[in-house]
Design brief:
InterPro entries: ADH-like_C, ADH-like_N, ER, GroES-like_sf, NAD(P)-bd_dom_sf, QOR-like, Quin_OxRdtase/zeta-crystal_CS. By secondary structure, the protein is an alpha/beta fold. The protein contains eleven helices and 15 strands. It has two domains: 186 residues, Medium-chain alcohol dehydrogenases, catalytic domain (Quinone Oxidoreductase, Chain A, domain 1); 124 residues, Rossmann fold (3-Layer(aba) Sandwich), CATH 3.40.50.720. α3 crosses α4 and α3 packs across α10.
Length: 339
């Protein structure tokens, strides 16, 4: 009885959050007060300390991510916060714990919210909420891409598009530690410096050079083991041309637009290639796999293998402007929102 009183005494009964009722530009996002019910069975309630902003949020807002959200809806798929209440049947976290989460129902653009307890990961005391928010989603993305989607090891060479971005910056660091040679593409001289500083052995400014020609030159015509492409329409065809025989194209985003239809026979003609369109949801759906991936990430951060890329912060209420800046490619590194 005493424990139940303690739990309920710390619950947040309302919150401020972004909601949207139609797909479109940033103008569809409305900042409003929302009721926050008690956490249901299997849920925890938390007060956000930092929230990660990701390109998937823009896809959700536009309705171009399959399947589209059921409207009206919240936005945001990751955050870090302090648990203020727990529902029945929850045993993995307690009130007062600081946790991070990735996935589950969108709704992270809020001062507080309820989430499924199975998505809550305890955060090591040595890591700040801002650093975790800057790294957790992007870091878990890199973890599954380079360890499980295409297992990479020393001696491999890969091409990574948008190498100065949040995911690319983390990947370059982690891959360098693994002994993998990274060729990164960027769109400006400033971003080229960022990519080099994070671990890219070779950097291609795609506005000045044809990345296909440069990759062939760098690899002496052999091609790369894998291409990691979150750009989409502008780079997909060229990415296939950069692969060595039996190489893999990992298409995990489409910042420049949807990927055009692919003729499967072309994969054979170009060298028995593989193409995959992975989702972090499928690589973290199993709780034990999710926890193991997070432990791997926290260990990499703690041991200095990776550090947060340049972090840009916006007030939570400025989320529409933050999204517009990201969509306009005016950001580098990680973008976080602070309540």
């Amino acid at each position: 009885m005493t424990r139940d009183w303690q739990v309920r005494s710390q619950m947040v009964q309302s919150a401020s959050a972004f909601r949207f009722s139609e797909y479109g530009g940033t103008s569809v996002l409305a900042w409003r007060e929302v009721d926050l019910p008690d956490p249901a069975a299997g849920e925890v309630q938390l007060r956000h300390e930092a929230i990660g902003l990701n390109y998937i949020d823009i896809y959700h807002r536009k309705g171009i991510y399959a399947p589209p959200l059921s409207l009206p809806a919240g936005l945001g798929v990751e955050g870090v916060g302090v648990v203020t209440a727990v529902g029945s049947g929850v045993g993995n976290v307690s009130v007062g714990d600081r946790v991070a989460y990735v996935g589950g129902p969108p709704g992270a653009y809020a001062t507080a919210r309820n989430i499924p307890a199975v998505r809550a990961l305890k955060v090591p005391d040595a890591l700040t909420s801002e650093i975790v928010a800057a790294l957790i989603f992007k870091g878990l993305t890199v973890e599954y891409l380079i360890n499980r989607c295409v297992p990479l090891s020393g001696g491999d060479t890969v091409l990574w598009h948008a190498a100065a971005g949040g995911v690319g910056s983390i990947a370059a660091q982690w891959l360098r530690h693994k002994g993998v040679t990274v060729i990164g593409t960027v769109g400006s001289a400033d971003k080229a410096e960022i990519a080099r500083s994070k671990g890219c052995a070779h950097v291609i400014n795609y506005r000045e050079e044809d990345f296909r020609d440069r990759v062939r030159e760098i690899t002496e015509g052999r091609g790369v083991r894998a291409v990691f492409d979150a750009v989409g329409a502008d780079t997909f065809a060229g990415s296939l041309d950069c692969l060595r025989p039996r190489g893999t194209l990992v298409s995990f985003g489409e910042a420049s637009g949807p990927v055009p239809p692919l003729k499967v026979a072309d994969l054979g003609a170009k060298g028995s290639l593989f193409v995959t369109r992975p989702s972090i949801a499928h690589y973290t759906a199993d709780r034990s796999e999710y926890e193991a991936a997070a432990a791997n990430l926290f260990d990499a951060i703690g041991n200095g293998f990776i550090a947060a890329p340049e972090v840009t912060t916006y007030a939570l209420g400025d989320a529409p402007r933050a999204q517009a800046d990201m969509e306009g490619r005016r950001t580098t590194g990680s973008v976080i929102l602070l309540p």
